[in-house]
């Protein structure tokens, strides 16, 4: 196939994809998005109490007592 025909075919396919409007199941989309939001909240709540443990671990890694004030 020559370059002109190849480009014309590509343009035709691109135009079909651009203007193609499939039927959207909005209720299924809403359920999917709601499920993802609930799953993200569960993950955040699961690890929220672990934040304070990082400070103790860093102090131990540098050989500092955990109550020592930090300097920049």
Can you give a write-up of this model?
Residues 48-60 have a biased composition (Acidic residues). Residues 40-72 are annotated as: Disordered. InterPro entries: DUF3073 (IPR021426). This is DUF3073 domain-containing protein. With 72 residues, the chain is mainly α. The protein has a domain at 24-72. The protein has helices spanning 3-19, 26-47, 51-61. The longest helix is centred in the middle third of the chain and has 22 residues, at 26-47. The protein is elongated and about 75 Å long. It starts with a helix and ends in an 11-residue tail after the last helix. The model has no long low-confidence stretch (mean pLDDT 75).
Annotation keywords:
mainly alpha, 72 residues, DUF3073 domain-containing protein, DUF3073
Distinct helical segment count: 3
Structural class designation: mainly alpha
Sketch the topology as an H/E string, one letter per element. Answer: HHH
User: Radius of gyration over alpha carbons?
Assistant: 28 Å
How far do the termini sit from each other? 67 Å
Name the overall outline: elongated
Protein name: DUF3073 domain-containing protein
Pfam family, one: DUF3073
Organism: Microcella alkalica
In brief, what are we looking at here?
The protein has 72 residues and is mainly alpha-helical. 69% of the residues lie in helices and 0% in strands. It has a domain at 24-72.
């Amino acid at each position: 196939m020559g370059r002109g025909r190849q480009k014309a075919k590509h343009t035709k396919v691109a135009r079909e994809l651009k203007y193609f409007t499939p039927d959207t199941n909005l209720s299924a989309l809403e359920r999917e998005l709601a499920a993802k939001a609930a799953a993200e909240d569960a993950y955040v709540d699961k690890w929220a109490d672990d934040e304070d443990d990082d400070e103790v671990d860093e102090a131990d890694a540098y050989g500092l007592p955990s109550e020592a004030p930090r300097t920049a």
